[in-house]
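Recall that a protein's primary structure is simply its ordered list of amino acids. Everything else, from secondary elements to tertiary packing, is in principle encoded there. The following example makes that idea concrete.
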Amino acid sequence: MTERELHKEQLLVKKLSQGDEKAFRELFDGYRNQLYRFSLGMLSSEAYAKEMVQEVFLKVWTKRESLNPELSFRSYLFTITRNKNIKFLKKAANNLKLREEIFYRSQKSANTTEKYMREADLEVLRQKALDQLPPKRRIIFEMSRNEGKSYETIGQELGISTSTVKSQMSKALETLRNFILENKDINTALVIMSLSYF
């Protein structure tokens, strides 16, 4: 962005903060396609990507009075969009209908080569995610997921309470899910979660 463009945008943001609807429309027109493509890349859904752009600009409008024209409006928009997309993906990971709608739709178009590449990527990412766990927590996690042991059995074998095992598993899952969502696209994240890797 040139200095002239930056100055123009700062003026628009200032007008927007004062409730100028024309300034809002101009900023919306200037960024909606960029935000749509950004969201589409994360969500793999045209409908949800469009909806996300609407939500982002709704938030911009409701928070207009707190906008600071001196700060990067572009960074502000993309930060909001990213955070909303991640929140949506977390919701989708725990919602069967959303998960199928987003993940399986995109999988229909994937060919075999893409599938193998994705599986390889998935395994590498899974290992990196596991490396984020402290040693003791990783042992507990692997005893549960790889060996299929119950929390009670793990507690008995490690000499710790069942509630400690549950707590450690909860923290491990949170760490792993956050790592996946922050380091990979939606499809891979949902593959891992849907396969109960984590």
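The first helix runs from residue 3 to 17. The chain is about 80% helix and 0% strand.
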